[in-house]
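Sample 1 of the test manifest.
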Amino acid sequence: MATTSEANALRYNLDVDYVVRYSFGNVDQSQAIQELEKLLRTLTSVGLQTEVRQGDETSLLIFVRATSKRLKRAVYRSRVRDWLYGILNAEPDSAGSIEPATEAERLRVINQMITLPAEEGGAGITPNHGEWKNVTNVFPLHDEETNKKWMRDWSKKTFLSDEDLDQIRDKFGESVGFYFSFLQSYFRFLIFPAVFGFSCWFFLGGYSVIYTAVNSLWCIIFVEYWKRQEVDLSCRWQTKGLSVVQTPRREFKPEKHVRDEGTGEMRGIFPATKRMQRQLLQIPFAILAAIALGVIIATCFAIEIFISELYNGPFKTYLVFIPTILVSAGVPTISAVLMSIATKLNDFENHETNDGYDVALTQKVFVINFITSYLPVLLTAFVYVPFASRIVPYLDVFRLTVRPFVSKEHCESKKSHFQIDPARLRNQVIYFTVTAQIVGLAMETIVPYLKQHAFRKYKEYKKRNGNGNGNGKAGQNGDKGSPERSPIMTYDDPAEEKEFLKRVRNEVELSEYEVTDDLREMCIQFGYLALFSPVWPLVPVSFFINNWIELRSDFFKICMEFQRPTPLRADTIGPWLDTLGFLSWVGSITSAALVYLFSGNPHHGPNGDVTDIRGWALLLVIFFSEHLYLIIRYAVQTAMTRLEPPHARKERAERYLMRKRYLDSTVTTDTEKDLQSDKDDTLPETPEISRSALEDDARRSSMHDTDPAERFWQRQHGWTESAEIGAGIIRAQPSSGSAKKQQ
Amino acid sequence: MATTSEANALRYNLDVDYVVRYSFGNVDQSQAIQELEKLLRTLTSVGLQTEVRQGDETSLLIFVRATSKRLKRAVYRSRVRDWLYGILNAEPDSAGSIEPATEAERLRVINQMITLPAEEGGAGITPNHGEWKNVTNVFPLHDEETNKKWMRDWSKKTFLSDEDLDQIRDKFGESVGFYFSFLQSYFRFLIFPAVFGFSCWFFLGGYSVIYTAVNSLWCIIFVEYWKRQEVDLSCRWQTKGLSVVQTPRREFKPEKHVRDEGTGEMRGIFPATKRMQRQLLQIPFAILAAIALGVIIATCFAIEIFISELYNGPFKTYLVFIPTILVSAGVPTISAVLMSIATKLNDFENHETNDGYDVALTQKVFVINFITSYLPVLLTAFVYVPFASRIVPYLDVFRLTVRPFVSKEHCESKKSHFQIDPARLRNQVIYFTVTAQIVGLAMETIVPYLKQHAFRKYKEYKKRNGNGNGNGKAGQNGDKGSPERSPIMTYDDPAEEKEFLKRVRNEVELSEYEVTDDLREMCIQFGYLALFSPVWPLVPVSFFINNWIELRSDFFKICMEFQRPTPLRADTIGPWLDTLGFLSWVGSITSAALVYLFSGNPHHGPNGDVTDIRGWALLLVIFFSEHLYLIIRYAVQTAMTRLEPPHARKERAERYLMRKRYLDSTVTTDTEKDLQSDKDDTLPETPEISRSALEDDARRSSMHDTDPAERFWQRQHGWTESAEIGAGIIRAQPSSGSAKKQQ
């Protein structure tokens, strides 16, 4: 149902539904014109109106709008598919009276009209792939008015309401809706540890047992609550059970094709066992990633300790930055290499669906994320502090590298006595949870925005300067030869469309939004809370503030720095849910270990007294803490499954009613008569049964006089006769008094 | 569909479906006669024929048979209910053409006709409860011929086939079918550890790492395989999703009644949160059970060690039995007390359904089972062997109790030097896994059978003696006064029914079968395999042999020592599945600890050298073993979920087809026409769109000349015009060569 704001939005975007960018820079002109004709013809054949404008010097923009009749048919087809697979429980109406329920559904269905293969009723346009590889982008336009309005509204409130989240889902689809729902739930839940952490920090300092226990309990409850909330949301947004309707992956190479017995469709098959064998390669990959990243992080760590705490020679202030530079340069490089290996492995596994591919890739990449995010703190906490007194003397090896640069006496005379820096661990945690978050926010949101604006200003400046130097109309002869003056583009746009097309050309430059990157960020943040917050109990406070900004900055980012995403459906945040549970589990181990190792000196940090640490006591503490965590998690899970989410109950009722409607529609008149007569049956008169029974008897005894079963059943005709015989037996027994004595 | 054998069975049982036992011993005669009339009238009103015979001196037997028409209606009603709740995927046929699919369905539906409340179409007979508390039994009769045939057949084969299991399900219901399926799967899986264990025992002795690792892996794979097999069976036997159709519990006391929005039925509600609070009482109960049983087992253990290894005075051979007697007497007593506490707790929790009640009770009772079954071995392995040298001197306290009975010199001179008995642990494991199994089999199967036969022989002997002394006809005057001659029952049976009624009277004496007891036995056995088999690798061999006998002896037990069970449906073995997983987990810890502690002396048992045992090394071994177990279990689970069981896929296809049939039945002619025209649409000719678009243009421009969106879309009419304009733009660009340079 197009609401007023939707109608306004459409008009603001001149009723354009999608923009298709066709790039002709890599092909010769005749081929480009042929491809363009084919593209336009295909789009029109599925019921889309087209308009062509110039994009830039090497691309065209094709604006696409769906005709009402064909759109309704496509919506109907999509809903029938959902219905058949059990996702929708209300039968789709006939094709005449269907409107897309939300803007997101409209855009999704139009996207299907563009991209689905011809046998499923689409145009088969596959961007960057196969015969359409010159089609580089297919995206909808931003609804800037609504975006601005929402950003204004949300900057005034603390919490988003359920209606706000529904609105996000109506505009951007369920996938983005789930992310913002998750972020909002996480934010809401963070109130408690923020308050509790602040009071613990104030009264107890760091490494307190109470805070750690409550923190672990909070992690358990949050993860289980979100699992339940996901089910509730998926029922409410009608995407429950979506995993059976997954979009197949184009790059999937099936081994053979079989006909599915149930649905009758042809399906490509790749044996699951073969895929699992290929997935075993994840193990050496994980080991390789752990070693590669671990070595570089540990080495830089050692160098840093050497320089900051052992070394006292010249240029100390500058040399301190060497490990930072090494890490900042080395880790992303190695991460990128590992990421490409992971992607190649993932392609090798030949997943059938896009969702399966994404899940598998997320799992591989998470190994890299885990190491780069948490290993530095783990090294500080569990290697540096307990064992530094033993290891650090070996770091003298670095002196050898320094020796050529420093005079001999300088070296030896400045050899200082090593002492553990007690605040190192806490400072590191503060860095990761406050500084790194702020820097990340800036890198993610502010810097790209500034970059875009600077780039556009530069282009405009160039254009004004270029125009001052003469006609800048591209394509005119005579300007090709002069190298100093780069040809500036002005476009042959109608006057009233100039503003609109300028906006569209800007949006074309933006990249595609991936919700999984934002989810990754949130999960890594959650990991810091679960693993290391006993070190500095203000961690949740910092996250609380950061997440308020994050929700609004992420929305800003989607609106300003990315193309509007094609609405995708989802019924879960995917593999990140398992990741949260895993981090929570690891957190129970590391928190207990931290508290045991360091609770001696809450306010001043650990002093590294190794004799106080007993290996068996540490392991025993970890053992109990972990098993207590597992028991409590099991109890919370059981409790949560008993509390059925309200929308799930509604969804179950809908399924029941659907079957009832079907049954009512197929009940025949015979059945109705039978059931009616069943209800109208009073207790049949004894003679009735006797009569029919006697008739049966007469018939049967005339045929089979020898059936013992029938003779058995003929001895007492009707219940009154049975009652009489029974009463006779009862009376024949001794009286109840002596019957009791005998018993 | 009544097969020949079924027809034979019915005739053998004189076509009797159910036997209802009415006891009038506790009420006076007039009341009894009234109740009897009411009972017979109620039974007849739901469509059951009745015949009354005498049971014994205080009871009547009412034989019940269902009339064909009413039975079909009841089957239809039951299938409609299943259909509405999503258990059946095929629409129930109209009432005219329905037959019970299996004997089990027939018996189940007739049981429903007897026991369901009146508003659901039954007679409302609730044995031992409420107004029918004089109805003590409602049970079907055994089909002795088939039973004997199966026992003969199965004693010749090693493995039961899938068809045999289907036959069990057809006769006895899905609940019993699941048990035998589980037993068969477990038996089949035991081949591998039996063979592997035998070779390990032969070549490596006990406590070998290889055997332990393979054993844990086997446990993981078996449990995950059975989970998958359960799903497959529930799809094949069409009970998937049964949990929504659970039979409500009669003793449930709801707090309030609400109308269910979906189904429209009135439901009693008891808040889940309140129940969960009551369930917290399980924690102190578990602690109490652990302490009570633990104290008695540990005390008897200490006494036994004292007497068998320290004490050397007189009567040693007799005193050794004291702890055995104490344990055999004390543990069952305390277990019974704890069991009654558990039952009261369970009643207090006010469960809604029978299944929920059973699951909760099983969980509570399992604590008791776990302690009584495993604590003795755990004590020997982890307390006696490592710490005995320190603890045993304290056992000298027992000398004080012995002292009055023994002369002083005897005591002191015989004070022997204490040495750990290295074979104690192994002997104990052998006892539990071989001797106790054999004794259990005898107690469970052979002894009750002998008892029954002895009792019947005694009754017959008494009867023959009584008849020799005169007329034994009960109820005749004159015999009441003489105390020496007890009145013997002979019954006034028709000659041809004597044999039949004698058999029925024997079956009435039997007790009701509970499948959960047999499942408990199997799970406890599995626990021994998971926890303690590294001690003696022949454990799986013993279980393999035992389980072959067990399957047949359990069937014998059901046929001979219990009333034929009313067929119950199930889609899982219930809480025992979680128990298997839990035992497997605990096994990973204990196996690792056992191997670490005792692998020094594989063939001669541990020598209790405590200095070799390091606490931290033990905890580290446990830590790694447990987490390796969890990782492998996660991997196996993931692999199993990818391999979809064949029947589950079929069930999914059925659900798809069901919805398709519904959709096809509701498609209107308009939709068909639309869809047809959709398929028939060739590429619309350009003029067509142009014409309609021109018409639209003309219409709109006459109304709104100012809509920028419409003007945007009118600039290019049809795709050919767009193609021309696009081609113009392409040609207007610099050639592709210089375009590439610019890019």
